[in-house]
Design goal:
Chain B: This is Lipooligosaccharide transport system ATP-binding protein. The complex is a heterodimer of chains A (about 260) and B (about 325). By secondary structure, chain A is an all-alpha fold. In chain A, about 80% of the residues lie in helices and about 0% in strands. Chain A has one domain. Chain B is α/β, with parallel strands linked by helices and about 325 residues long.
Amino acid sequence: MALAVENGRRMFDYWLTVYKRTWKGTMISSFLLPMLYLAAMGIGLGSFVDSNGTGALGGVSYLQFIAPGLLASTAMQIAVGESTYPVMSGLKWQKFYHSMIATPLRPADVVYGQLAFIAFRVLSSCAVFLVIITLFGGLRSPLGVLGLPVALLVGMAVAGPIAAYATTLENDSGFAMIFRFGVVPAFLFSGAFFPVSQLPNWIEWLAYVSPLWHAVDLSRNLSFGTVNPWLALVNVVYLLAWFIAGTWLAVRGFTRKLIR
Amino acid sequence: MSEQRESLVHVRDLRKSYGDFEAVRGIDLDVWKGEAFGFLGPNGAGKSSTMRMIGAVSPASGGTLRILGLDPATDGPSIRARLGVCPQDDTLDTELTVRENLTIYGRYFGLSRAECRLRADELLEFVALTEKAKVKVDELSGGMKRRLTIARSLVSKPDLLLLDEPTTGLDPQARHLLWDKLFRLKQAGVTLIITTHYMDEAEQLCDRLVVMDGGLIAAEGSPAELIRDYSTREVTELRFGPDVMLADHDALAGKVEDLAQRIEVLPDRLLLYTDDGERAVAAVHERGLQPAAVLVRRSTLEDVFLRLTGRTLVD
């Protein structure tokens, strides 16, 4: 375990060095897009929704309703972005994973380093976004800042499985599937913009299966101060299960591709 | 081969299969400390598969493999900590600078950041890339990238350096510069294992080599031994001009075949393998044959290679 931490740290250095060169580009996707959503939906659409009274949302403004969900969605999108193309590049395009495992690093270390970097990306971007949300008055209670660890959790929950999926692809066309049938529907239908109880029954159940719904629900309950400990525990355990299973799958996928 | 010497790579009946395909079909060899050892062979001979197994990134399908006295199945990371690997394709990070590629790679070996910076500067000096330190790898020429890849493989101060086709695709200037660097490493006591299909490279660099073909070792020895054992001292090349057809060559070969130990008929010329090329030329003239051009040359590893692995194209 200590070895894995040390080796993962060596790899994390790589990602930080790369990030020093690319962070300006990621600013746009990590901060600007959620900001635009916050402004358009929270303030634009929100003023329209709120003008009919806030009863339907339980007396909170629309901005406050969507802000915790947007935070969790942002985390998911960053994690998916960082576990698709960069993984394909390491395996096939630039092949830097192959040069990494020619050193004492093992495929598992490569996975841990990658996940650590994704955690860093999710945490740093979401922390900034959380500050912006707070400035807009998007949090209802101080507990809402716990949306940050929840964001980290959902990021980790999706990063592992998607990195594992990326190792099975021959080219990047499979990523379009992930975005079309995974990320976008999850973003729209996981309760970030409206309660999933509004959905037809079978879609509502699909939402409960998605890790994002659990993060949105938990994040919102924290902000609203309406946490049910048992439900929160289910949310956390469900996300952790995705994280653990996904990491295991990713290690298996990386090992298959790199050790032949 | 004296047995007191330390065997850095010990291989017995080593095999590697990918599904039904057997890439390596049972090879034996030892690489001794301090030598430059070469793998020669056509594409698909099993060189790269063998190199990946020695690099402890590819598990053997059968047989015994000890690298630096350790078993790669159980001690992979400890073995790799003492290896330098220069892969066939450049796996440099093109988004980073030349120097960052070295410092980051040192980190993978657990060197401190300060140590990485120190070694990066030394190695850039060694491969003559100091002026390019802050340039992105994207902007380097092919030869510079190879030099950087070699520098990167040295960042851990390896005991054993694996070079998979180090000069493929380089121009002559770049190749000679690389050979010079590799020769200096060998002088410094680094054990080298090189795969190549350039015979001149093998003759320049290798103390000892094996010729692989179809997953097996076809021959083993020093370049001089291989030439002695599998070719003749000299080769006489006879050209009879463009009007002479292959069928005529066969007929001509019949007239001179007793003059050489072995004759090879090619579309444009006859090759007479003999220990005394000039005497063969004289005898050819005595028989009234008038070749348009005559060349007497020393046998090279290329003759050995073609004899052992054939002239058929391997794809």
